[in-house]
Design brief:
Layout lengths: L1 H12 L32 H13 L9 H14 L3 H5 L6 E2 L4 E4 L10 E4 L5 H10 L20 H11 L15 H7 L4 H13 L4 H8 L4 H7 L4 H11 L12
Antiparallel strand pairs: 1-2, 2-3
Helix pairs in contact: 2-3, 2-6, 3-8, 9-10
Length: 254
Amino acid sequence: MLGVLRHAINWSRGRTPPILTTSPFHRYGVTIKTNGEVKRDRRINFDEEHPLLAAADRMDAAVHDFAGPPMRDRIIGALDTGCRLGEMLKIQNHHVAWDTHGLLIPGANAKDGEGRRIPFQPGGRLAMILERRRFLGPQPYVFGSARGRYQATIRTGWETLVLLTHGLEPTRLKHGARVHHEPLQAIDLHWHDLRHEAACRWWARGLDLRTIQLLLGHGDVKTTMRSSNLSDEDVRLRMRQVLWTTTPVVAETA
């Protein structure tokens, strides 16, 4: 129940204007015990990422409200920055530091109120998106509409994209109803899984937990371990691969 409450509070804080301005769920407030929180281990490998991006390309039609190109950019943004959705949607062009190749996440937009910077690879796919959006001016939103307007929610676009990726054509029984609720449950792919996937990929490529913690904006490294689907044994094995030698250290004797 605590997990549901936290999600509801974070959703309320992410509205514009926000419904709630404070939350007990931050680094100095209420914490949730690991055993009491459901641990998701859903991965998005490259075999699933490519069809997602391809489906976004096919969504560029009036029936989909021309949602394709922005959704493609957002997927890449989520996988390359590890940002929470609310944080990512509020990134404006003036938050991009081209001299240092970093994205600024202001504290006002961050879940814990702490600002942070996320580097991006010069010449990489995220840099290409940022460069393409740059001409709109400093105020437009990088991951907003085609013209840079703020996008408060992307739920319908995301659910439509997931269904198209799996060969299903979305339909609605009435306006505002969710599309194909049962198939979406069976596919079991949430937007937040992209953030977890970013953490997993960083870990697999050699980033240490502390760096990943800073990139994700976690106040507790245990949260980072859960986001990266890491156990104590995973950390031990990484230390063995990176730090420990195969030659045992023999203590000196008198």
